[in-house]
Amino acid sequence: MVLESIISPIGVKNNPKSAFTLGILYAAIAVILAYFIFPSDPSISIIFLTTLAALPLLINVLTEEETESMEILKKKRKMPLIHTHKDVFLVFTYMFFGFLTCFLAVYIFLPENAVILFFSKQIQTIQSILGPGGFATGNAVYSGAAISAEESLKIIMVNNFKVLLFALLFSFLYGAGAIFILAWNSSILAVAMGNLIKIKIAVFGELSGIKAISSYFKAGTMSVLRYMIHGLPEICAYFLGAIAGGIISAAVVKSDYRDPRFYEIILDSFDLIALASLLLIVAALLEVSVTPLLIR
Question: How far is CA 52 from the centre of its chain?
Answer without folding.
Answer: 15
